[in-house]
Amino acid sequence: xxxxxxxxxxxxxxxxxxxxxxxxxxxxxxxxxxxxxxxxxxxxxxxxxxxxxxxxxxxxxxxxxxxxxxxxxxxxxxxxxxxxxxxxxxxxxxxxxxxxxxxxxxxxxxxxxxxx
Length: 116
Description:
Shape: globular
Oligomer: single chain
Order of helices and strands: EHEEEEE
Strand content: over 45%
CATH class: Mainly Beta
Largest sheet: 6 strands, mixed
Helix content: 10-25%
């Protein structure tokens, strides 16, 4: 039997593609402060991450801040910003975007655990 007393869930990092301008992305971040839920498509969910953990955002070579993970869902939906149809597994985020001093990091696909 596993000992869950010592288990700690983990924060993650995702990369926002360079093809998306940070100024455009900030508009969506502002909507998330008002309850809009943002979705990030993944091939699999991070098993050690839970609702309430932090999701750090990496853009153009720097981790710029974090949002709270509000859910994990497999669904079909139409993006309200781009009108693009999506299907699959999504990490959902909402609430305030909390800026941090930039941390340099090379971009990647998918997600990674944040090592403090």
